[in-house]
Amino acid sequence: VVTNILRACRRLARVARPGDAGVAVFALDVAETHLERLNHLGAGALLEVLFASDRRRDAAFVLNRLRTEEAWPKPTAEVFGIVVRDLILRGEPAEVVEDALVHMANDAVAPTPRVLDACLAAPHAVQLSLIQRLHALSGARPSYDLFVERCVSTNLAEGNGDEARRAAYVLEQMWPDADVSSVFEEYGEEFY
Length: 192
Fold this sequence. Notes:
Elements: H1 2-15, H2 22-33, H3 40-52, H4 56-68, H5 77-89, H6 94-106, H7 113-119, H8 124-138, H9 144-157, H10 161-174, H11 181-186
Helix pairs in contact: 1-2, 1-3, 2-3, 3-4, 3-5, 5-6, 5-7, 6-8, 9-10
């Protein structure tokens, strides 16, 4: 029941006027009042309410409580994915995104492909490093097609062959049997 209420709040927060904190205050109250019934799905919905309501300090406070307080459910990869996605969409510096990912690793939460896919929304300068670090830590991989599109094809289209080659090397680390030479050929570039 608590999760359903928080999901309804999430829908309301997405259509509310910018800066309207009423839904966020209500959602926080529901979560705290019914903490014994709050699970990771409800916690994720609560974070999305707070982000949609531009209550990022409250979201950081909730994430800290999820990570440190016994009464709160432990954060999952999905919960961290919500945080990472919001940080990237807001254009936070790579260090801030990496801090969230370090918390995730410190909490022994392995990133999912969705978390890695969210990292692919980061600006080109940092997305490849984020993916490479997360793969090295956990072995997790993003969506193959999305990685090729965002890291290889986009760089080739922008005339950045060196960065595309760097991405192709990372791709070969994650998928040893992959052959991206055809992508380079499409753009008239040599892979090696």
